[in-house]
Amino acid sequence: MQNYSGIQKFLHDFVLSKKFVNKSLFELEKIFYLKNKDIKNQSHIFITGLPRSGTTIILNFIYSSNKYASLTYKHMPFILSPNFSKLFHKKNILRKERLHADGITFDINSPEALDEIFFNNDEEFIKNELVNYLQLICLSENQIKYLSKNNLNFKRIDLISKFLPNCNFLIPIREPLQHSYSLLNQHLHFSQLQKEDDFIRRYMNYLGHNEFGLNHKPWNDPINYQDRGKIDYWLEQWSLFYKDIYNKYQSYTNCYFVLYEELTNANYIKTLLKKINFSEFENINLNYFKNSNKKEIERKYSLDKYKKTKQSRKKRGSRRKKKEELMDERLRIDPIVEENEIEKEIEFQIESSFNSISVHFSEIFETLFPGGNGSLSFTDKSNILETGIEISVQPRGKKVKKLSLLSGGERSLAAIAFLFAIFKSFPSPFYILDEVEAALDDANLHRMIDLLDYLKNDAQFIIVTHQQQTMQAGDILYGVTMEPGSGSRIFIKTKQDFESLITNDMN
User: Fold this and answer.
1) I need a labelling partner for 333 at 20 to 30 A (CA). Which of 162, 174, 369, 491 fits?
2) 432-458 burial: b if 16+ Cβ within 10 Å, else e
3) How far is CA 214 from CA 115, 200, 211, in A?
4) Is 97 helix (H, G, I), strand (E, B) or coil?
């Protein structure tokens, strides 16, 4: 948008700012292009949630399967008339880095969050035309399934689900400090860009891109912090947003919380795609994030990366220098902190940790109890510092809600799910487990072993056990035996040695 000519800027201003122009073109498009094609029951995908959580790279990843239609830059500025837009010759955009300066590149065929133009109408129009609009987009791309990235669609999950019953929502979650820092960074960055070029501000406002910059609209009413130039504001917004969203939608079967830090894990991505019935595995690279897009995930997204590139960024001028000084100033720890501020920080850390553990617990519980549901909740939300945690579970085919009503083996497996959820939220190089599977039957033991096999790629597990199945699953077996006259003796067996031993015993 920085390189738009005067005529291009005028066209975008005229079309995007005039609802009657968009609606008129939309009505004409329906007359000329709308066909009776069943898309209502297709498994459309909506990526939503806070920006800077990986929404764009997830969008690009799924779009690379070539099985979904999505709004792209070639549809600009005629967003409500995606087929008409193809009639206008557009100069091809050489692939370049977007204005966010975050390493993510785009060209004229790149998908983007543009459908807020449609949703920025009255609710009656949305209800009547949602299916028609998505059908027009699908027709323009010769597809039957729609893919959307819209940070504001979290407000419309119930509405969209009503008209598209088989759709799925992906809601990324990112570590709060890193995420909040990235939001602050972008807010300062775009505020300066919009001061220098008002067309950027108008353009983003037309598209409903008010996540940061001079157009910023809070996702929640600020409680304690008002200054958008400080990280405290963004941390509070993060906490309020995810607390509300998770409480509302964690039980929805079509809503999936995606862990940003796990995007480089191909097995995690594969499991996620299976959950949403994504069938285009042969058309997609499961190592997309780990390989070609690893730089896009990590570049300038973390505090470490920021610190390492700080010196080079200072060379970009006084504007960037002022921004960096502001961020550095805010990130310094004040040695004098009032007691109430300490308590607020403790409460925030508890809630942040709890939300992360809750997400992992739900996922791990579903793995250990296929078809079941498990969730965590505070016993007293009004008193975070003294509240307990309630574990609610429902194995498949049972109406059990409380952990105390499960069988002994089921309670053990649920406890293991909780324990591993903590492990995933606060990783360690190794873990020691002392007979955690003693009460499990063969079927549940097998599920736990499968989970350990999945997790062992990221950590080392030392397990004290009497279970033969667990011993067989280990890579190395350390045994302790008593010999007459010599006391205790330790022996070491590899997995192959143990398997041979078992075979000989059976013979």
Assistant:
1) 174
2) ebeebbebbeeebbebbbebbebbeee
3) 21, 10, 9
4) strand
The CA distance from 61 to 284, in Å, is: 8
Q: Does residue 33 contact residue 139 with C-beta atoms inside 8 Å?
A: yes
Q: Which residue has the tokens 């990366």?
A: 305
Number of residues written out for the chain: 507
**Beta bridge partners of residue 69, listed in sequence order:** 146
Report the amino acid identity of residue 276. I
Which ranges of 369-441 does DSSP label H, i.e. alpha helix?
Answer: 408-425
Cα(10)–Cα(159) distance, integer angstroms:
34
pTM: 0.62
State mean pLDDT over 361-374.
84
pLDDT in tens, 190-221: 999 999 999 999 999 999 999 999 999 999 99
> CB-based burial of residue 339 (10 Å sphere; 0-12 exposed, 13-18 middle, 19+ buried)?
exposed
Q: What is the DSSP string of 138-155?
A: HHHHT-SSBEEE-GGGGG
- The SS3 assignment for 2 reads coil
Please, which residues have CB within 8 angstroms of residue 455's CB and are 6 or more apart in sequence?
Answer: 420, 423, 424, 461
Of residues 342, 121, 335, 435, the one with CA closest to residue 133: 121
In terms of Cβ atoms closer than 10 Å to its own Cβ (0-12, 13-18, 19+), residue 140 is buried
What would the pLDDT profile of 463-486 be if each residue is shown by its tens digit? 888 888 888 788 888 887 777 766
pLDDT at 313 over 50: no
Euclidean distance between the first and final Cα of the chain, in Å? 75
CA geometry: angle 45, 255, 165, nearest 5 deg: 60
Could you give phi then psi for residue 91, rounded to 5 degrees? Answer: -65, 130
Q: Map out the domains of the chain as residue ranges.
A: 35-292+317-328
246 pLDDT above the threshold of 60: yes
Quick one: 396 exposed, middle or buried, by C-beta within 10 A (0-12, 13-18, 19+)?
A: exposed
What contacts 193, CB < 8 A, 6 or more positions away? 99, 200, 213
The two counts, helices (H) then strands (E), for the chain are 19, 12
CATH match of 35-292+317-328 with 3.40.50:
yes
Phi/psi of residue 97, nearest 5 degrees: -75, 140
